[in-house]
Amino acid sequence: AEDTGLRVELAEEDDYSNSSLALRLWVEDPKKLKGKHKDNEAIEFSFNLETDTPEEVAYEMVKSGFFHESDSKAVAKSIRDRVTLIKKIREKKPAGC
Amino acid sequence: SSLTQVVHSAGRRFIVSPVPESRLRES
What we know:
Chain A is α+β, with helices and mostly antiparallel strands and 97 residues long. In chain A, 32% of the residues lie in helices and 22% in strands. Chain A has helices at residues 54-63, 72-92; strands at 6-10, 20-27, 41-48. A 3-stranded antiparallel beta sheet of chain A has the order 1-2-3, with helices on one face.
């Protein structure tokens, strides 16, 4: 969250086999965001590692009114950083471990 | 719970709930 002001975490334990993850995103540093947003609300959503893209989820969050268009890049980056980390961890651990 | 709101967008479901006090960093 240090550079986007947003934090994305796993909302449920990753079982390393399912391509769909439950993620949770919230604003940790409101000063880093440009547009209007809700400060103390966490948004939980599912993300499919094989079919979804961070940009698409960010766009839907903007469309749903959670964030302003000017912050969609920061939202997408936060999701992408977390997804990249999860993929790296999965590569290290065999499925179902 | 009444504090949780579900929003659908393009077939995706967003569940909105308050961030636990413990997770909010002093801003």
